[in-house]
Design brief:
The chain is of the alpha/beta class. 41% of the residues lie in helices and 14% in strands. The protein has two domains: 22-265, Aspartate Aminotransferase, domain 2; 268-391, Aspartate Aminotransferase, domain 1. The chain has helices spanning 22-28, 38-55, 68-79, 93-105, 122-131, 153-163, 211-219, 250-266, 268-289, 316-327, 355-370, 377-391; strands spanning 11-12, 62-64, 85-90, 108-113, 137-141, 143-144, 149-150, 166-170, 189-192, 205-209, 305-309, 329-330, 332-333, 342-346. Strands 2-10-9-8-5-3-4 form a seven-stranded mixed β-sheet, sandwiched between helices. It has a three-stranded antiparallel β-sheet with strand order 11-14-13, covered by helices on one side. It has a two-stranded parallel ribbon with strand order 1-12. Helix 10 crosses helix 11 (355-370). 52% of the residues are buried.
């Protein structure tokens, strides 16, 4: 039996979009209320309050009505003024990409770039800040998904705060899947969304905004207003007594509400642990199968995405096609510089369950063998199961 490209896969183990929780899908089918109905205005305020609890913020977060790329671009447009000097930390495709946005708003861009299988060294950040006291904004991607690597944003954030600069954090594919919160890393703009580890569809951005970031954006004459890129327009939209800048995505807010309930009711620590366990089992299985991880050190490997280095002589696109056609399992490719060099297995939201590590290793090993590459799938499955059984 083979699964046609036109047939839905059995299991989607990508790094996003991820399949949504069934409770979220049901919530998407709730009544779409008029945005100025008092019932919706009270509901929206309650959802923002839940997001505040989930993000462990002392201030209310902002919901932007577009998937998190909107939030990242809005962060650059709103916070960065022409007079700013931005230090962009690039350990992967997405970290590098933020520098292109920053360059639109200031000519003064500095960068620390590492090989894309490594993480940013806080000492390098400390040295750069000391050498360039003019730095006013620092940007970093926490989990650079196309590499499956994690940057030490709490350490970086402490250095940036001591320097007096503003910190922009891309936590799109890390928040909800591991311990990370805006105030833990002293972020001024912390951008994430419900479409990764919270197990909801793409369509919204969650932004943590520090009080001083609000002040800086208000003093920036080029910060967008009356625009999809405006963060400022949504400052008070959480309140049932204040207007929305434009029609919010009502159905998506319904879904976010359910996703936040699931996260808070299960308990964040429990959610993080099942993400971490699924990733540990997958990594152990991949190594025992005879494969290599993309991250140079396992200590920087993400608990929400496992990146597997493409073996010599294997066509990575053919590998993913074979896994889908033979087993109905879908993996992610790399992006940009990592395209064709690695395969990504996502552990986010509903697929952050240890049983999916077994499915991933079986499909990956079987696809490799079908392409004529040696893979000890049996050893991989035993290793993955041993990790799972040890945690039982």
């Amino acid at each position: 039996m083979r699964y046609a490209d036109t047939k839905e896969p059995v299991i989607t183990l990508t790094s996003g979009p991820v399949n949504a929780y069934s409770e979220v899908l049901r919530a998407l089918s709730r009544t779409v209320l008029y945005d100025y109905d008092p019932a919706f205005q009270a509901f929206y305020e309650a959802v923002v309050d839940k997001a505040q609890r989930a993000m462990r913020l002392s201030t209310r977060p902002v919901i932007l009505h577009g998937e998190p790329v909107l939030g990242l671009e809005a962060a650059a447009a709103s916070l960065i003024a022409e007079s700013d000097t931005v230090l962009n930390l690039a350990s992967g495709v997405y970290g590098k990409g933020f520098g292109y946005w920053a360059k639109r708003y200031t000519p003064n861009l500095l960068e620390i770039e590492t090989p894309y299988d490594e993480a940013i060294d806080p000492q390098a950040v400390k040295d750069m800040l000391a050498t360039h006291p003019e730095i006013t904004v620092v940007s970093v991607c926490h989990h650079d998904t196309p590499s499956g690597t994690i940057n030490p944003i709490d350490e970086i954030g402490a250095l940036v705060a001591a320097h007096g600069a503003y910190l922009i954090v891309d936590a799109v594919s890390s928040f909800g899947g591991m311990r990370t919160h805006p105030e833990d890393c002293q972020a001024d703009l912390y951008i994430t969304g419900p479409n990764k580890c919270l197990g909801a569809p793409p369509g919204l951005t969650l932004a943590g905004v520090s009080p001083r970031a609000w002040d800086k954006m208000k003093s920036n004459p080029l910060a967008p207003r009356a625009s999809m890129l405006s963060i400022l327009d949504w400052e008070t939209a959480w309140s049932r007594d204040k207007p929305f800048p434009f029609t919010p995505s009502v159905a998506e807010v319904n879904g976010l509400d359910a996703a936040l309930d699931l996260y808070l009711n299960e308990g964040p620590e429990a959610v993080w642990e099942r993400h971490a366990l699924t990733a540990r089992a997958t990594r152990a299985g991949a190594l025992a199968t005879g494969l290599a991880l993309w991250p140079k050190h396992e200590a920087i490997a993400s608990p929400t995405t496992t990146a597997i280095r493409t073996p010599d002589g294997v066509d990575e696109a053919a590998l993913r096609r074979e896994a889908r056609a033979r087993y109905g399992v879908v993996f992610s490719s790399g992006r940009g510089e990592t395209l064709g060099r690695l395969t990504r297995i996502g552990h986010m939201g509903p697929t952050a369950q240890p049983i999916y590590a077994i499915a991933a290793i079986a499909a990956l090993g079987g696809a490799l063998r079908a392409l004529g590459h040696a893979a000890d799938t049996g050893a991989g499955l035993e290793a993955a199961m041993a990790v799972i059984d040890a945690a039982a």
